[in-house]
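User: Can you help me understand a structure? I only have the sequence.
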Amino acid sequence: MQERFTGLFTQQEPIPEDGIEAAIAVLRHGRLHRYNTAEGEVAEAALLEEEFAALTGAKYCLAVASGGYALGCALRAVGIAAGEPVLTNAFTLAPVPGAIASVGGQPVFVEVTEDLTLDFDDLAAKAKATGARLLMLSHMRGHLCDMEALVALCADLGVTIIEDCAHTMGASWNGVPSGRHGLIGCYSMQTYKHVNAGEGGFLISDDAEVMARAVLLSGSYMLYGKHRAAPPPEAFEAVRMVTPNVSGRMDNLRAAILRPQLRVLGERVARWEVLYRTLEAGLADTNGLRLVPRPDAETFVGSSFQFLLPDFSPARIASFLARSVARGVEVKWFGADDPVAFTSRYDHWRYAAPQSLPQTDRILAGLFDLRLPLTFTPDDAAQIARILRAEVLAVGQGPEPEAVALPKVQ
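Assistant: Let's start by predicting it. Here is the structure, written out as tokens:
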């Protein structure tokens, strides 16, 4: 009898008890708005910003309502103009080009490599062809490119880097935290990310003028003095009357939930690596399956797992997905013609101009992905690997299957 996995790929760990207690305290006093404080009180949101700045080594930090808001706020803070081209990965998720479009920019997609990172040759060619001065770099699914090489290339090109670190909070490249190579680092605290507030976002930077604009954009009114991880008051003087309020503040309730989670982020990263490496070991040397190598310079967060079946036909892919889901393993595929739940690709985002990306098309046609929530154990990861390995071999070595409908996953 075939084994079947019974875990839930969408089930996160509960909020830590000290986070629950802190949230209850906020609910009891009722001061949820970040600028509504009692005499002598420091807001939870201000403390959260201070603690995340210290965690990443950034001078400044701003907590906002969502990761997508953080991306749009960053673009506004660097002065994006209407219709301006913005370079970004072709392999990313919808909120990244969505943020660019939301502020009037034009997404220019850059090819992805076999290792799921930015193609530097295509980046250079498109930067020169479009005159783009901004790169919104998406560390998609936690894969970091060679960050020193990218920084040097972008300096030569005159391109400013904004990092989308939604999947790399807690990751680093050669010991430098993700988000600290570009002008601005943006993070998400949405439920499936590395700390969980349902929704939420961070911006970090060492640039006082950019961060002063971001604080004002987030809806600080003239209360920016209540921030503890913001630039000094003089940084706001030149911009405070000309920066629009595009409200997207973090509230004290979510901040209270998040602060204890920051303290255990390192522990979570270590636990995710165990799950990831267990799954990786179980799938190693599977005929027809390609794993994505992790560079020695990269400290990654294994909250999701990617692999490729580069030689599978569409019929074999559909059969593999259906068989895996039937055995309880919710695998997602980036090659589907229509977006499914959270999974979509660059040609689905039709607010962006049509673009030809043959290398990315080829890679995404065989790319698969699954979540690894911390509610899973290493034994769970080993079982998932056994099921996936068996189904890859069964589908890949058998006759060409008949067409089947793609399964639905969250």
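Now, to help you interpret it: The longest strand covers residues 60-64. The two ends are 27 Å apart (CA to CA). Let me know which part you'd like to focus on.
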